Predict the 3D structure of the following.
Amino acid sequence: MEFDFLPKLPKPDLDDRTFKDLVDECILRIPRYCPEWTNYNPSDPGITLIELFAWLTDQMLLRFNQVPTRNYITFLEMLGVRLQAPTPAVVDITFYLSAALPNTYTIPMGVELATIRTENEEAITFTTDRPLVIDEPQIRHFLTSPTTEDTPASLRDRFTNFWTIRPDGDWYGRELGFFEEQPQPGNSFYVVIDEQSQCEGNVLALQIKGESATATGINPDAPPRRWEAWNGLEWVSVLLQESDDSTKGFSFSELAAQGINPLQGADVVLHLPQSWPVTTFTAFRGRWLRCTHNSPQPNQPGYSSSPRMVGLSIRAIGGTVGASQSEFVHNEIVGESDGTPGQTFQLQGIPVLNRREDEYLLITAPGGMPLRWQEVSDFANSGSQDLHYTIDSRTGTIQFGPLIREPAQLQQQTQRREFAQTGIQQSMLQNPVLMNELERQYGAVPQRGSVIRMIAYRTGGGRKGNVQKGTIIVSKTAVPYVAGLVNHTSAVNGSDAESLEDAVIRVPAMLRTRDRAVTPEDFEVLTLQAGSGAVTRVRCLQATSKADAGTVRLLVIPNANTDAIARGEGMGPEIWALNPQLRNQIMAYLDERRLLGVQVKLQAPEYVGVTVQTEVALEPEYNNPTAQQDILWKLRIALYRFLNPITGGNDGKGWPFGRPVYPSDIVNLFQQFAGVRYLGVVQLFELRYTGQNWVRILPQNQVIDPGSLGLICSWNDPRLRSGHVVNLIQ
């Protein structure tokens, strides 16, 4: 391992001879010790033996020269530097009930879930991080508005004096329009849920009943509407996929044509955000859902008339809760104390994840009561009576306070110097009390025979936990009334344990910042430390105006599993979403280290998709279908890897912030492949994801036709599965 970032000091090799030097020295000694040997060619068996022993000696010198590296590692250990443990991946798990329950139902914390075990891969276990409450929602208001606003101001109550509520919570009445009689883009209606309903993260089925004669003129497979919920900061989409809308965009006539009676109702399944607070807009208070009439896509019709309904009800059919890649271990007996200072014990499950409030060590002395001990990072501030211990998260080693014995010569030499400077007789400085203070206990030691028990801890973590969506479907814990579960998003933020090379890079930055955030570089380094492996890149932006003075803006790219690139798959921008858990973790860490008055804002960068369109000419010997498909596959993987926030760029450390893509970049990339003779014109197009469609940035925004796309290099989407245009020409 070479430390290229260190100052260029003289190379500390204890023996700087190379393999060639050893061979040359041996050959020069041949005339002296064996003058009859005259053939020095490499084909001579004797020269072969010389090269063999020179190679063995070179290997010995290589290990011998690693002594300075060992000294460097020892220095890191003296500083108390420990390698960071793996970080668990986090994911949202959606539970679906077998039927709507009449009472509030709670799925407890700690439910274990897993992926399917295969012949080649072990099952990966996840554990829910908090309880999930699935409540009975009640509709309080139905409101309409002619426009779409972040803060609704012009709302009209459509239930009062027109509709009636049944004892079971269902509303019914005469026909009621969702939008204006002549619907216009921006028309909205709001469903306000009673504030007493604890529906955060619930999956709600909004049942809508209508007349089959109310045709609306839209394409039921692509209805121009958008479902959203207010999460306290913004309106977020809650319709996971079009198949969750059984009303087909309120096309009750389409349902009747399929033999379904719309008067019996059709469901719209909405996945609510886990933060869904009670909010007041104008005079109405509750939890807010909204459906907005969008502008129809090109070549798609809009609403010719407002859809109408005669009944509305809502019920909870499931819920979503956060989970982390971990397994719980409860009440593990670690061992029995022998009463010696500095004793260590080993946990069975490793690595150990960061401990929570209810994860601690309980020690029971013989004939005594169980006492809870406190975990500390080190014993620097621990007294002899403090019930402290440390845990190495990577190795699972528990250690109690050591006994430090100082050499008596050190105190005696100090007294001699004091005598020489003050003239006081040395016999007057001899203090028996001081002589007994040559040893110090850091932290208490469990009494001999004490039983040491770890109440609970979690083990897990690593990149393997960044599983794809739809893979966590097995419940290892029996949960009543649950019919199934699934992760609708990919798991993110899982990272492996820190390597020695990473620690060597981290420690100089740690010594430079001294755990304080002052300069932009300090904020970047501390943000990486706060992520504990879950953050791969950070960029601190400079203030551009006086209004931004005192505000630090950080662009954070979370860690993600890039294994999909090797399979020829892109990575969507949702992979690098900054989830609330990671955001809170970083903010809590920076708040303790920033200067007073400095405001920190975390945000994700604005990711841009890239379409590459070109023609590749191959060498004549590659003019066969097998070779062509192989080269196309390699070019696609190279593009996905090159134009990527984590693996991209010329150095492979992530595409630089703000750097544009030039055609010459693609030319240089493709010319590295054997068989590529030359390239045609390289065309690059910028893509933006609007939440509904991919849009190519041209003078006029156009929805991309899936049949005429270039290769999406930064990410991939099911709508673009046939999109690559890298043509081969002879």
User: Anything to note?
Assistant: The first strand starts at residue 90 and ends at 97. The CA atoms of residues 115 and 472 lie 4 Å apart. Residues 1-11, 698-730 have pLDDT under 50 and may be disordered.
